[in-house]
Amino acid sequence: MSEKEKISALPSDGYDWTKIRLEYVTTDITYQELCDKHGCSMSVLSKRASTEKWREERKKQRKRIE
Fold first, then answer.
1. Hey, how many other C-beta atoms are within 10 angstroms of the C-beta on 14?
2. Neighbours of 48 (CB within 10 A)
3. How do residues 18-64 score in pLDDT, each as one tens digit?
């Protein structure tokens, strides 16, 4: 299964994952703080973040800013 297929197979659960991902990538917020703020579980957020490679995106974003 390709990365794109893995991402599209993840349930949306009614959360605005684009907004949550953007907040993670562009700020210093932690996964736990995101869960508390948006009401999602850590396991769901962690799985989505891992599949979509949020940490790598955050690193790239920080390098662009430097």
1. 8
2. 20
3. 999 999 999 999 999 999 999 999 999 999 999 999 999 999 999 99
CA dihedral 29, 56, 39, 36 (to 10 degrees): -30
46 contacts: CB under 8 Å, gap ≥ 6: 31
pLDDT digits (tens, 9 = 90+) for 4-21: 555 555 656 789 999 999
Say how far apart CA 34 and CA 4 lie, in whole Å.
23
pTM above 0.85, yes or no: no
Q: Give the sign of the dihedral formed by CA 45, CA 46, CA 51, CA 54.
A: positive
